[in-house]
Amino acid sequence: MGKDVGGLGFRDLLIFNKALIAKQCWKLISRPNSLTARVLKGCYYPNTSFLVAKPLPSGSMIWKGLIWGRDIIEAGSRWRIGNGSSVKIYGDRWLPRPVTFKTVSPQILDEHTTVSDLFISPGVWDMTCIRASFHVDDAEAILSLPLSSSDLPDRLIWHFEKSRDYYVRSGYQVGCDWMSQASSSRLGRLNDWWNYLWRLRIPPKIKHFIWKACHHWLPTLVNLARSGVKTDVLCSQCKRKAETTCHALWGCPKAKHNRTGCDFLVGIWWGDESHFQDLMVLCANKLASRDFEIFCVLLWRTWFKRNQKVHGNWCDTSEDVLGWSVCFLNEFQNTNWPDEKHKNVAQATKMNWVNPDVGTFKVNTAAVSNGNHYKTGIGVIVRDHKGLVMGAITQPILSLYSPQVAKAIAILKGIQFAMEKDLLPTVIESDAKGVVELINRGVTPCSDVGVITTDILALLATRPISIVYSSRPTNIVAVKLAKIASLATSSKIWVNSAPLSVENLVRGDYTC
Question: Which residues form the RNase H type-1 domain (predicted)?
Answer without folding.
Answer: 366-484
